[in-house]
Amino acid sequence: MIKIDPDFATAIDYANAYRELGMQVVPALSPSDNRSWKRPAISTWRDLQHALVDDETFLGWYGPKGSHVHHENLGVICGPCSGHLICVDVDEHKQPEAALWFSSCVEGFNSGQPFRTATQRTGGGGKQYFFKYRQGYAAPTIKTSIGVDIRGAGGFAMLPASMHESGKAYEWVTGLEPWSVGFLEAPEGLLTEIFRLATMYGGMAYREPGEGVQRTVTPECVQNPFGRMTDGREGYMTRLVWAHIVAMYRDCPIRPSDEAFAAEMSKVWAIYERKVVSRIREPETQNGILLEREGRGISLLQQKWLTAMLQWDEKIAEWASMPAPQRQTAQESFQQTRRLAESIKRGLDIDLETGEVLEAVAEVADEFAGSASVIDQPDVYEVLDERGIMALADPLWLVQGLVIENSLGFIFGAPGCGKSFIALGMALSIATHRELWWDRSIKRSGPVIYIASEGSSDLKYRIKAWRDATDVKAESQFYLIKQTVNFMDAHDRDKLLRSIKAVSDRAQTPPVMIVVDTVSRAIPGADENNQADATLFIQTCDLVRETFNCTVLGVHHTSRNGNMRGSTVFEGAGDALIEIQRELGSQVGTLIPKKIKAAEDGWTINFQLRKVLIDSLKAIESLFAEPTMAVVKSNSDWPEASICQAVLTAMKDAWNAGRPWSSHAQTRKEGRYAPVHMSKWHIKQELAEQMIEAWLTEGVITYEMHSTKLKQKGLKVAETRAEVCAKQLPPTSAHFSQSED
After folding, report:
1. Cα–Cα distance between 401 and 439 in angstroms, integer?
2. What is 663-682 written as a DSSP string?
3. Which of 222, 371, 430, 522 lies in the 20 to 30 Å Cα band around 202?
4. Mapping DSSP to helix (H, G, I), strand (E, B) and coil, where does residue 610 land?
5. What's the confidence (pLDDT) of residue 215?
C-alpha cells in the first residue's frame, strides 16, 4: 500500500508512488532553470505520450543512482500513457469566470457534490483536478482566457512536491491524495463541456505563463529557397488536418480510439513540420519549438484537430460521403511532364504560361538505321541487330576525356572545396566558345543554363573574376536560373522544360549543358538516401537531357565517409563522377575523375583557388579555379640521385610494411605524411611536395589503394620506373604543364 509522508518523502518516494498508480511521471524543470519552467526536463518527452516507460528508463531517472534523484521537481504526462488521465486546472482564486465554470460543472454533472478525485493546490494558489476519461474520447490540451486549462492527451502537469516560483510547494488536498481516493471517471457531461470549452476558446494555444506568441514579419515569398512554406501555414494546416480526418472516416466511420487518435495526429504533425518552417531564425533550436513560439505549432494543430473531430458525425461524415478526388501518382505526374517534353522535341509551339500546345506541326516520322537492322512490330521495343548497333552514332566529347555529350555527370566534394568554381569555369568556357578548358579540348560550345539555387548572390563576382583571370572578352551564351527548381515536383518540372525551351528560342539553338548547383537544393524535402526519390531526380535529369540533347551536370556534396552523398542510384546513373578534394584553409586542391564511362579514369589534376581583385575601389575580391603547375626553384634545389634512390627505397619499404606514405597532409597524425619522412634527408616540405608531384607525373610512383578494408591509400613505387631516379635531373618541361592522364 502506498504511504507518503510529505514531511520526509523524497523525490524518489513521490516518483515511485506516482508510477505505482500508473502515472507517467517524469523529471521537470525548476523555476531557476528557465522562465518557461513548467515542462519536463527531458527533451524527448513527447515520445513518451503513448505508453508507460519501462523500468530501466524509470530507474535511470529515479533509481539509486538515477540522474534526477536530487531534483525535487517532477510532473505527469497526461493522456493514454497515464491510463487516460486528464487534468482540469482551475484558477478560481484569480478569475471569477473559472470558479463559475467549475461550480456549474459540479452542479450539473455531480449533483452539486464536490468531485471526489485526486486534487492538488498549485504553488500559485490554483487547484487541479485529475480525472480518468473513457476510451475513444479525444482529450484536448488547451489554455483558455477564463482561467481554465485542460491537460489531456500530451499535456503536462507539475506534481507535489515540486517547488513553484512563488517559493511554495505543490501539495495534495488532504484526503484527496491520489493514493487515498484515486482518479474519478469523468462524467460524460464534463467531457462534453471540456470539448465545448476547447472549441470556444480554441484560438489560444496552450502556453506557460509569460510565453506569448512571437510575432514575425510576413515574408515576400510563400516558400523559402529550400522549398519549405513560410507563409500561409495556418491555412495549410487546416487543409491538412481536415483532409486527413475525412480520409480516416472513409477508411472506418467508427470514431478512433485514443491510441489511434494520437498516432494519426502525430502523422499529420510530422508532415506539417517537414513542409513548413519557422520565420524565427535560431539555428540551434528545433523547427517545431520555433513554430510553437509563433503560434503555428503543435498546439494550434491540436486545436484544429479537436475542432474537426467534434464534427465527426456531421460535416466529416458529409465530406466523406463525397467521391474521393483521384490523386495523380508519381508515375502519372512524370508521364505528364514527359508528354510536354515530347511536344517540345517535336517543335510544337508551347505557351510558356500554361504549357498548352497552341499549334501542332507535322509529326516527326521515326527514322531507323534500316529495315535490315530493326525488328519493327506493333507495340514492341526497338531491337537492333549487330548491323544496326554498328550504325549507331559514335559517342562525342563535350570536354575531351572528361564529359561526354548528352550525358549525366556529377561534380562532388565537401562543402567549400571549390566544386562550384570549377563547374562555373567549365560552363563559362563552353558558353563563350573557348577552345580549351584546363588544357582539354571543348568539342561542342553553345548555350549553358546554370541553375544556382545555392550561392547565386555573388555569382556576378565569380563570373567577373573568371573573365578577368582568363582575359575572355567574347560574348557569352551563359544563362542563370536563380530560383529553386524542385526536380521532384510536376509543376516545377514542366516549368523548367518550358524555361529551357524559351532559352533555346532566344539563343536559336538548344543548350549544350544544364548545370544543377546543388543537387540537394533541387530535391527539397526528398530523402537523398531513398532509392525512389533519387530515381525520380535522375528521371527528371534524363528527361531534360533527352528533350534537348544536352549534358546535365549536377554539383553535389560528399558524405561523412568521403563518398558522394545519397543513394547509390546517383553513382550508378552518372556517366562522369568527378571528385574535388581540397584541405580546409589550403588554396590548392585536386580534381579526380572517379568514373568516366567512355574513357580512362583515376588520374588527377591539381588546381588552385586564386583570389582576383575585381573592384579596387570597393575592395571586392572573388576566387578563380585554375590548374596548377609543379615549379622547382632551381636546378641546385633538386636532390642528387643517391638521395632520390634512398627516398624511393624507404617509400617502397613503407608500402610493403603496411604503412604507405601519403601526399595528403591530413595523414600527418597517422605518421604517414611523406614530406615528414623525407625531411630525414634534409628535404624541405615545399621541395618534397614538388618531388612527389613530379614523380607522380613521370610515373615513377603511383597513388593507389593499399587496403580496401581500412580504405587506406598511399604512394607506391613503380618498379619499371624506379631506375629513372638513379639519374634524376631537375623536372623536365612535362612538370610545368598539367598531365592529361
Report:
1. 11
2. S-GGGGTTT-BHHHHHGGGT
3. 222
4. strand
5. 67
CA distance 704 to 651: 13
- Using DSSP's 3-state secondary structure scheme, residue 54 falls into coil
Cα–Cα dist 386/346, whole Å: 29
What's the confidence (pLDDT) of residue 721?
A: 47
**Which amino acid is residue 98, in one-letter code?**
A
Which own/partner contact pairs does 343-348 have at CB distance under 8 Å and 24+ positions apart?
344/497, 344/498, 344/501, 344/547, 344/548, 345/546, 345/547
Cis-peptide into 427, omega within 30 deg: no
State how far the Cα of 525 lies from the Cα of 486, in Å rounded to an integer.
9
pLDDT tens profile 213-243 = 666 766 655 666 555 778 788 888 888 888 8
Q: How far is CA 486 from CA 25, 110, 134, 483, 723, in A?
A: 45, 59, 46, 10, 57
Are the C-beta atoms of residues 136 and 255 closer than 8 Å to each other? Answer: yes
Cα separation, 76 vs 40, in Å, equals 9
Please report the DSSP string for 286-326 in residue order: -HHHHHHHTT-SHHHHHHHHHHHHTTIIIIIHHHHTSPPP-
Q: What cell does 716 get?
A: 607506391
Alpha carbon distance 412, 571 (integer Å): 11
* Residues β-bridged to residue 128: 89, 120
Residue with cell 507495340: 379
What angle, rounded to 10 degrees, do the helices at 298-309 and 188-200 form? Answer: 120
Identity of residue 551: T
Determine the Cα–Cα distance for residues 97 and 88; give it in Å rounded to an integer.
14
What residues contact residue 279 under an 8 Å CB cut-off, 6+ apart?
A: 216, 217, 219, 230, 294
Residues 6+ apart with CB under 8 A from 102: 88, 90, 92, 148
b/e string for 368-391 if b means 16 or more Cβ within 10 A? Answer: ebeeebbeeeeeeeeeeeeebeee
**pLDDT reported for residue 85:** 96
Q: What pLDDT is stored for residue 702 in this prediction?
A: 87
Kindly give the pairing relationship between strand 142-143 and strand 148-151.
antiparallel
Do 310 and 199 form a contact (C-beta atoms < 8 A)?
yes
Burial class (CB in 10 A: 0-12, 13-18, 19+), 234: middle
* All three cell numbers of 483: 530560383
Distance CA 538, CA 29 (A): 49
Lookup: cell for 155: 499535456
Residues of the chain with pLDDT under 50: 202-211, 351-378, 630-636, 721-722, 724-741
Q: How many CB atoms lie within 10 A of CB 484?
A: 18
Alpha carbon distance 257, 196 (integer Å): 20
Q: Residue 638 has what pLDDT?
A: 73
User: Are 479 and 634 spatial neighbours (Cβ–Cβ below 8 Å)?
Assistant: no
Judged by DSSP in three states, 397 sits in: strand
Instruction: Report in angstroms the alpha-carbon separations of 599 from 404, 576, 595.
Output: 10, 10, 9
- Among the listed residues 555, 551, 516, the one whose alpha carbon sits nearest the alpha carbon of residue 419: 555
Q: How far apart are CA 319 and CA 152, in angstroms?
A: 28
Q: How is 465-500 classified by DSSP, letter by letter?
A: HHHHHHT--S---EEEE-S---TT-HHHHHHHHHHH
Cell of 105: 460543472
End-to-end Cα spacing for the chain: 83
Indicate the pTM of the whole model. 0.45
Distances (CA, A) of 237 to 99, 229, 243, 296, 304: 34, 11, 10, 9, 8
pLDDT of residue 380: 63
Q: Is 274 helix (H, G, I), strand (E, B) or coil?
A: helix
**360-408: pLDDT as tens digits:** 333 323 322 333 333 333 456 667 777 767 766 677 889 988 999 999 9
Query: In whole angstroms, what is the distance from residue 488 CA to residue 537 CA?
Result: 6
Cis amide prior to 518 (ω within 30 degrees): yes
